[in-house]
């Protein structure tokens, strides 16, 4: 409401989209009766000690998390440990489709927490009487550890659309991966321009942490159910992050003595700065309405291809496949299985003799330093011995050559390895998507040879839930105004 008032008064409003990526679980309530839940426990399909929870909370049914034919009333949810003190934690906001604060909450859901052994952790659970609080909301915080989350219905209320967002400082792993839209609150107001982020060094590769859209609104401001839910296409625009400043950030990505500010909170003021230039070019305050200002940036935005498989890229050269999978591989977060080379089982009689990766076209170099990079490290090997692998690699160069002993790398075998990548002269570059364009060459024992470029799978141009309508183009937006 505050955002919309500002816009109604004639000002454009630019907000970070958020840095929650796809940290959301959204679904329709799939009821499981209390008796059926007890049967699951009795059969050994669930280890939950339900009696304690049932003795202290009202339960009329449970939610089935399993989207398939099986029934599972719990979701394994692990809050990962922190790399340094203090210990990690994750907060969860669980909501459903009823309006807040207008006397219309008729459904009471609880988010029950059990440990990995099935013991009920009532002190960590969300068990408010939501009809009394008039808030369709349960808030809870989980410290580092392994849990099982259970959604329980405490009455016969009508609401059946469920969603929870989580905010973590260390990361989580979940049995049924969340993967839902996570842009919410003022960032999804009707009048706002929510801004996604892309690192300035690689502006065609979006930051994977940007909160996903769209945002769906079910009620008007008076709490009346809309005839059709309103789908708000957020974020609408992308701007750069990682630029220098003199006081904030701490991460000096380019080594130029100035800290870099990352996140959508950095991208939003950069987008607002472009908007100010557009407004100035049009004649100053009042010369453009907020919507005209928004349109100028959106209509001239440079489309960023939407990666249909984030943090993953690959190249196929005949029967050989090389993949990159993940978003990090440096000193602080090393992954010895980031790269994987596989020779298809059907390649009868063929072997792999040599594979060369050339990052030049991707604008990357290998960083083998131990302080901020990650030296070449072999990971999981299938059918190949470490002693059969020879590596040729010079630090801060784009070329990596792997040579395999004759006959050692055959059909069905695979070699995984990790080594840090940096944007040449700028740092960063860890995301597998940034490998796009790099050339891989392969030589087989039979004499067969081939090469190909690493690619990503992209969706169609236009709005997408990660980058909106694309990267803001200052010159294009200024030039479009009369």
List keywords for this structure.
13% helix; 482 residues; six-stranded antiparallel β-sheet; alpha+beta
Describe the structure.
This protein has 482 residues and is an alpha+beta fold. 13% of the residues lie in helices and 32% in strands. The strands form 8 sheets. Strands 3, 4, 5, 7, 9 and 11 form a 6-stranded antiparallel sheet that branches. Strands 18-19-20-26-23 form a 5-stranded antiparallel sheet, with no helix packed on it. Strands 24-25-21-28-29 form a 5-stranded antiparallel sheet, with no helix packed on it.
Average pLDDT taken over every residue: 92
Q: What coarse outline follows from CA principal-axis ratios?
A: globular
User: Regions with pLDDT < 50 over 5+ consecutive residues?
Assistant: none
Work out the radius of gyration: 26 Å
How much of the sequence lies in strands comes to 25-35%
Question: Can I get a quick summary?
Answer:
This protein is of the alpha+beta class and 482 residues long. It has helices at 2-8, 34-43, 50-56, 130-133, 264-282, 290-299, 474-480, and strands at residues 14-16, 24-28, 31-32, 61-63, 75-79, 89-96, 109-115, 137-143, 145-153, 161-168, 172-174, 193-199, 215-219, 225-232, 237-241, 243-244, 260-261, 312-317, 320-325, 339-343, 352-358, 364-367, 377-382, 389-393, 399-404, 414-418, 420-423, 439-444, 449-453. Helices cover 13% and strands 32% of the residues.
């Amino acid at each position: 409401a505050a955002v919309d008032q500002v816009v109604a008064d004639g000002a454009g409003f630019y907000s970070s989209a958020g840095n929650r990526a796809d940290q959301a679980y959204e679904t329709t309530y799939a009821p499981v009766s209390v008796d059926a839940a007890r049967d699951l426990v009795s059969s050994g399909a669930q280890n939950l000690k339900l009696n304690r929870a049932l003795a202290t909370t009202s339960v009329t049914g449970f939610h089935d998390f399993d989207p398939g034919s099986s029934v599972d009333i719990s979701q394994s949810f692990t809050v990962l440990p922190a790399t340094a003190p203090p210990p990690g934690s994750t907060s969860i906001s669980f909501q459903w489709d009823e309006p807040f604060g207008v006397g219309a909450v008729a459904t009471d859901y609880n988010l029950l927490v059990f440990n990995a052994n099935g013991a009920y952790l009532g002190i960590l659970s969300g068990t408010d009487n939501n009809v009394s609080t008039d808030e369709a909301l349960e808030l809870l915080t989980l410290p580092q550890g392994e849990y099982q989350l259970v959604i329980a219905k405490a009455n016969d209320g009508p609401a059946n659309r469920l969603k929870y967002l989580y905010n973590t400082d260390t990361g989580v792993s979940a049995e049924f991966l969340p993967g839902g839209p996570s842009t919410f609150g003022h960032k999804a107001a009707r009048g706002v321009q929510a801004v996604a982020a892309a690192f300035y060094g690689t502006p065609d590769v979006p930051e994977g942490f940007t909160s996903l859209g769209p945002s769906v609104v079910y009620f008007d401001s008076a709490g009346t159910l809309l005839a059709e839910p309103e789908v708000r296409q957020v974020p609408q625009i992308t701007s750069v992050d990682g630029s220098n400043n003199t006081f904030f950030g701490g991460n000096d990505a380019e080594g130029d003595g100035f800290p870099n500010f990352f996140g959508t909170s950095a991208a939003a003021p950069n987008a607002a700065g472009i908007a100010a230039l557009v407004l100035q070019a049009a004649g100053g305050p009042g010369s453009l309405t907020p919507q005209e200002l928004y349109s100028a940036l959106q209509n001239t935005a440079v489309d960023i291809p939407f990666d249909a498989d984030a943090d993953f890229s690959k190249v196929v050269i005949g029967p050989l496949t090389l993949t990159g999978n993940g978003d990090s591989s440096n000193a602080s977060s090393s992954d010895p299985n980031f790269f994987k080379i596989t020779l298809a089982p059907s390649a009868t009689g063929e072997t792999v003799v040599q594979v060369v990766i050339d990052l030049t076209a991707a604008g990357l170099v290998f960083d083998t330093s131990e302080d901020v990079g990650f030296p070449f490290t072999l990971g999981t090997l299938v059918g190949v011995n470490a002693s059969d692998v020879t590596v040729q690699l010079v630090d801060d160069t784009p070329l990596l050559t792997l040579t395999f002993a004759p006959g050692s790398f055959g059909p069905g075998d695979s070699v995984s390895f990790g080594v840090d990548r940096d944007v040449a002269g700028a740092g960063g570059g860890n995301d597998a998507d940034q490998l796009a364009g790099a050339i891989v060459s392969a030589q087989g024992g039979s004499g067969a040879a081939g090469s190909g470029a690493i690619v990503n799978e992209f969706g169609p141009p236009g709005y997408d839930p990660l980058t909106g309508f694309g990267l803001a183009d200052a010159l294009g937006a200024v030039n479009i105004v009369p």
